[in-house]
């Protein structure tokens, strides 16, 4: 086994299911307030990577960036964010059913979308080709409720034709943004999909989710080296999205399942997980964090594994807990621990 791979070598080997010198790892969280300007968001992500030296950089914009150019308004209210750094939407862009087909085909080089492109460009420029950088993009079924609130679910069921016209516009705009992100320097996408049964039936997701998800992923696929999908929620439709044109799957393996070991039998790509971000990573103690990382390696025999959280960790997670997780992958048998 090689004693030291580069981040790219380690990630590419893991994606192929080959042996690595140690398991790759990705750690991240949101950056409230800093995520409202390209330079401050980029600086936070660059500093994070230089501190923790991860094998994959998840570009972490505010999830509300998708609504602002369509007329949504947001603000950061800490007591509303569940500790995750999520902005509160204070004005919905869609307040009537007939507005879905009238959504604009946005110019992704203007407004808030352009700011996100500039931020990812700055990150990619600063880090060079030392590590893969993924832009975060959202399923149209994630964006639609941000635009319309609960109306989105009602319109989906009562006015499906109008709702689907809106989803098509969202998907096409998101696909253009994804391509522009890759052209700006991102190496791939971190695609967030709300494919869970607490929001949608499987039939609904196959009708209103999958076709529009695929527009984005299939548009990006020829230009992207790595496509990671985050399956949101506690009752995910794992097998549905396992068939998407993606390289890696991320989900709450610790709290919702399937386990990493079970998932290896159901998905042929890279598995991202192993760390309970809102439980163990946030609360500790360090021994428990280390134990989860080592157990993830045991479950997968260290193959096709990217160690990471199952979703966004709380922004108040102690820095020492992230450091413990990062060092834990160096402690796997057969590797040489080193300080960072």
Protein model, in words:
This protein has a single domain, classed as TIM Barrel (Alpha-Beta Barrel), CATH 3.20.20. Helix content is 43%, strand content 12%. The protein contains 13 helices and nine strands. It has a seven-stranded parallel beta sheet with strand order 1-4-5-6-7-8-9. α10 (260-264) links the parallel β7 (248-250) and β8 (270-275). It is globular and about 60 Å long. Mean pLDDT is 95; it is low at 334-340.
Which properties best describe this structure?
seven-stranded parallel beta sheet, alpha/beta
Principal-axis shape equals: globular
Number of helices: 13
The strand order across the widest sheet is 1-4-5-6-7-8-9
Radius of gyration over C-alpha positions, nearest whole angstrom: 19 Å
Helix-strand category? alpha/beta
Task: Describe how the helices and strands are arranged.
Layout: H1 7-15, H2 38-52, E1 57-58, H3 65-68, E2 73-75, E3 88-91, H4 111-127, E4 133-138, H5 140-148, H6 151-158, H7 160-183, E5 188-193, H8 202-220, E6 226-231, H9 238-241, E7 248-250, H10 260-264, E8 270-275, H11 277-283, H12 286-300, E9 305-309, H13 319-328
Parallel strand pairs: 1-4, 4-5, 5-6, 6-7, 7-8, 8-9
Antiparallel strand pairs: 2-3
């Amino acid at each position: 086994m090689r004693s030291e791979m580069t981040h790219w070598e380690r990630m590419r080997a893991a994606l192929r299911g080959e042996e690595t010198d140690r398991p790759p790892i990705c750690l991240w969280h949101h950056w409230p307030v800093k995520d409202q300007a390209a330079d401050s968001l980029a600086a936070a992500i660059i500093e994070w990577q230089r501190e923790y030296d991860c094998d994959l950089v998840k570009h972490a914009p505010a999830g509300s960036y998708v609504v602002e150019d369509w007329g949504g308004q947001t603000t950061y209210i800490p007591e509303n964010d569940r500790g995750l750094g999520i902005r509160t939407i204070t004005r919905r862009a869609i307040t009537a059913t007939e507005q879905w087909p009238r959504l604009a085909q946005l110019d992704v080089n203007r407004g808030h979308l352009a700011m996100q492109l500039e931020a990812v460009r700055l990150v990619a420029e600063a880090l060079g080709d030392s590590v893969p950088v993924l832009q975060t993009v959202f399923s149209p079924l994630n964006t639609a409720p941000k635009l319309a609130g609960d109306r989105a679910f009602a319109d989906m069921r009562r006015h499906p034709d109008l709702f689907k016209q809106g989803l098509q516009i969202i998907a096409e705009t998101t696909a253009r943004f994804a391509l522009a992100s890759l052209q700006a320097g991102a190496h791939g996408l971190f695609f967030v999909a709300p494919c869970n049964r607490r929001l949608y039936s499987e039939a609904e997701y196959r009708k209103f989710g999958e076709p529009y998800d695929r527009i984005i992923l299939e548009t990006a696929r020829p230009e992207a080296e790595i496509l990671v999908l985050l399956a949101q929620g506690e009752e995910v439709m794992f097998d549905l999205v396992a068939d998407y044109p993606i390289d890696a799957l991320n989900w709450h393996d610790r709290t919702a399942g399937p386990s990493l070991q079970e998932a290896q039998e159901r998905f042929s790509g890279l598995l991202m997980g192993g760390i309970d971000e809102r439980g163990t990573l946030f609360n500790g103690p360090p021994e428990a964090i280390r134990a989860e990382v080592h157990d993830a390696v045991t479950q997968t025999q260290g193959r096709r594994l990217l160690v990471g959280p199952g979703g966004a960790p709380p922004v108040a997670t102690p820095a020492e807990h992230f450091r413990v997780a990062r060092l834990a992958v160096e402690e796997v048998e057969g590797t040489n621990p080193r300080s960072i």
